[in-house]
């Protein structure tokens, strides 16, 4: 036990029993704490009824240590806490001198994976103008930590779950008003921060404010399930003034300059975490020590039943994110029952739409799913899935083949894994994983058949976005694929790769209902592999290319050099999609989506392969705005060749899928180039291996890419980052959320940690002979 602990009598009586019972019945525990954290330096006058103000740690037995992590990304400070009982991510935002004060305001946010839940409190300076209030967390003098756990084994009669969360100390440099609190779902918080500041009256109205002894204030809100409650409390410490509650149309809290202990907690069922040692396979277990930041981040997003996409904004199941991450991280992830690989595959199968075989994109759970049900006049807390994406389905056969055919552990798990009965979605509860995998594969076979048929290679037979949807693959923002309907990545890489893997699975004994798939899927795959690239090809004569780039530099007000001297031949690339905005037949935006073909297909048409690799290498080497290269990384999109001002206007450096850098795209490009270069040491090397200028260009591009990756090591674990250009310094990294967005859209804050941005745990620079 540590010193300096003050117990109020009430707390003591209430918890001694449980402490004793733990000592008696269990061995010692994870965070090594059996602590009661009182508000620091509060006068001992805190009365007997002050229990609600005191955060109590009384964690159950954990087999591993609690993990903590602090990540600074000004104006955001991120703090993580995880033990076996709960996981919390705290984000403190405090404006910097150069922040855009319309977008960046003081904010305390706590995100929880269980139920995709959270709490946010927006603050404003009481008297001064925007920018004068700074907030920050301080370490506890009692524990030395920035965050300490909250664990109350039983809290109230309505919920059977422990009340868990975190506590810390927040400091205000001037008097402050808490103007808007939101307690419940992260999705509700996202709607408020990303939408037009939408608040739902009956959700806000359910927040209950109460004064508590010691000058503190508590907020709580019971969810729409009538069972779960979220709590947020503040208590002054170090002699700071009392918190006052101003009840009005919207109730606010007032804080004086000084420090306050905050406690954020909830009583929803928790997920079972995969600790840093459980998320990796035995031969990669030292990653937890070698790279504690990324290992802790991966562990924070990994649970026995699913991996979550990112934090804080996307702290829930996402199909594409999980599958892409698995593809890139598989060499280091834990295999077998209860391991990370089966968590990803199981989570995906569980959520398949049984009617049409579509994979689930995003799962809505917790308070927000009850809210969505309520909007449909349904009284239910049942989770929901969004099936609007068209790319997600194709990852399944690839990951199934990689694990259940190529891995010894996977093979040994085949019968029991596929014999599992689905249990997450009521509507799938009479299906096994084998049934669900079959339904998904049938969808892929059926929808790819028309294009593969004799004479079927038409634009109409390519895979389109779903009717009425403007997004459908990873560039899923309004302008992500420039209004296109037929995406490049899906048609030229994902479909043929899925088909090759269905054939391989069939050969390995899968899908016995369709014994001919070993041949039909393989034949379809070959047509899709060879005949789709040509639909997306854009060739721009050298002189036109130069004038388009100059025109772009003028239109976009890009302050850097145009580099048009680097245009020494015609420019060739593959457009982002077909059927774009303003009647563009091809969305003429240069992009990084070549990485899908590089990584997923060992294509065999040698002429096509050589020219594909040649243009890819060129884009990696050439500086933006001619190519994709910049000192801050490869831009995922370059609209310079668009030949329509709509492109420069929509693909900006503050658009989510604009002239910005995505970590996992760097990883997949690097891993894809390595796979292609690796083919040169196989027994039947492709032709490009023996074409010296091309082979050298590829090696140079690979090495250049790794130089960019290494130079941006500080950013790699983030989802996406942007830049500003300064004539003296050149490119400088800037968080995306700190830049004003394109006209008509809201600022997009990036996640500090995104599952698919942790893939450099497994992707490394390789040497080729
Ligand atoms: C001041 O901050 C608030 C809240 O962050 C914001 O809504 C408002 O637009 C800001 N005002 C100005 C003038 O930037
Ligand atoms: C808080 O403690 C951590 C170590 O636990 C330390 O790295 C950090 O600098 C401290 N922060 C402050 C504001 O003192
Ligand atoms: C929420 O706070 C109100 C006011 O203090 C209190 O009456 C109520 O019992 C609290 N709800 C829960 C579930 O603790
Ligand atoms: C919660 O309680 C309210 C009021 O009694 C009721 O209308 C609502 O249907 C309940 N919600 C759920 C999910 O049970
Ligand atoms: C209360 O909050 C709502 C939603 O943010 C806002 O539209 C309204 O202006 C606020 N009312 C007052 C009196 O501040
Ligand atoms: C599942 O697919 C069917 C057929 O496309 C569709 O009608 C249904 O709405 C989908 N289910 C959900 C929950 O979206
Ligand atoms: C839900 O019920 C209300 C009141 O009966 C009705 O006005 C509304 O149209 C219903 N909504 C849906 C989606 O059925
Ligand atoms: C599959 O599960 C059923 C019922 O749960 C069981 O009877 C059968 O033996 C299992 N088959 C395999 C191959 O594990
Ligand atoms: C496909 O499987 C069938 C048996 O189901 C077999 O006769 C045939 O030879 C296989 N085709 C290939 C190309 O392996
Ligand atoms: C771009 O042009 C500059 C200046 O001529 C040259 O140094 C550089 O090597 C060129 N880059 C590429 C990739 O061709
Ligand atoms: C492509 O070939 C490389 C090198 O032989 C190999 O490592 C990789 O697994 C192959 N990829 C596919 C999708 O077959
Ligand atoms: C700050 O952000 C607002 C809202 O996005 C934008 O309209 C404004 O131009 C930005 N101000 C500056 C100085 O960038």
Automatic annotation (TrEMBL):
Going by the UniProt record, its keywords in alphabetical order are: Signal
Leader sequence range is 1-26
UniProt-recorded name of the protein? Glycogen debranching enzyme
* Source organism per UniProt: Lophium mytilinum
